[in-house]
Write a structure and sequence with these properties.
The complex is a heterodimer. Helix content of chain A is about 30%, strand content about 15%. The longest helix of chain A is centred in the last third of the chain and has 14 residues. The chains are: A alpha+beta, B mainly alpha. At the A-B interface, helix 3, helix 5 and helix 9 of A face helix 1 and helix 3 of B.
Amino acid sequence: MTIATLEQPPAEAAAIESFTVTFLIRRFDPDVDTEPRWQDFDVEMYATDRVLDALHKIKWEQDGSLTFRRSCAHGICGSDAMRINGRNRLACKTLIKDLDISKPIYVEAIKGLPLEKDLVVDMEPFFASYREVQPFLIANSQPEPGKERVQSIAKREIFDDTTKCILCAACTSSCPVFWTDGQYFGPAAIVNAHRFIFDSRDDAASVRLDILNDKEGVWRCRTTFNCTDACPRGIEVTKAIAEVKQAIMRGKP
Amino acid sequence: MTAIEAPRTPVRPAPKRGINWEKWGWIYMRASGVVLIVLIFTHLFVNLMVGDGVKAIDFGFVGGKWAHPFWQWWDVAMLWLALIHGANGMRTLVNDYTNPGLVQKALKGALFIATAALIVLGTLVVFTFDPCPAGSPADLLPSFCSAV
């Protein structure tokens, strides 16, 4: 038995140009380091490779201790949000061709959450504020026996944008208000509250609006638009927060 | 046996009944911002472009404006709206760059005192301003006072 055929790259692949890209990665090993440090790696990359591929190459071929999260690697699970060249991006959706490879590419963990190791942060504060807005359907009415709750296309459209959230924390950890003391709910929690507040099948909008009418709620947002820029799903986060503000002032969605 | 919390128990206690200052602060910033655009640009237009333009501004010009209740109220409205707007913005910055504690309290206190002092003094000046106070020596008064 041999696997030799697998080791032969397809003939045409050899023709594709590759580049040496320098990555500066902010490393932190809690067992050794007291402060995070920057470490550089040179990686051979194709233009169509992603930053995640570079991290894989580093971990598999250069330094096995590099620690980062990734699960699906296709922009759906939301585990590999990180700060790439100062902007919060998913490593699996950031292509090398979209970055300036004449300079080193800076990769660090998302900010505002406790750093655990290398690119891994403690997501618990993020999920705690997510849980606070009660992100589940609360319906008091009974649908007709044997029928689902009917919703028109127009009513579904109102909150369509905010159903796309994958909870990667790219928005919340790009928010300067969240960086300050971490008490602010953060864009992601408000986006997920928005998804239920404006759902015609849900009956607890007033409960969620009350929760977000808090001192640390939507009013701390001052429309920096960092979250809209950071969202890998293209959700108009700042607009959703503004809609929640309007709903609180109206007293109903 | 410990009782398990009901799944929908709010994590934070429900907000206290009463005035939600963070909300009214936010609304104030929006409302005062819109009003200030009108007040400030009209102020600039009247002072700098109408008539002789910027050359007309002197002690007498300001004294003349504050002789009319209309401009007194206009300037007082600008003073109050702009100072509170600015102070509230500075409060946000203090919240951003300090942790809750003594320093934050001190900075906010200083901000409040400065704003209150400027508002009180400014309001006092606008409404009590008299370019030709009675009984003052003539050489200290502007030239137009003899004509009044």
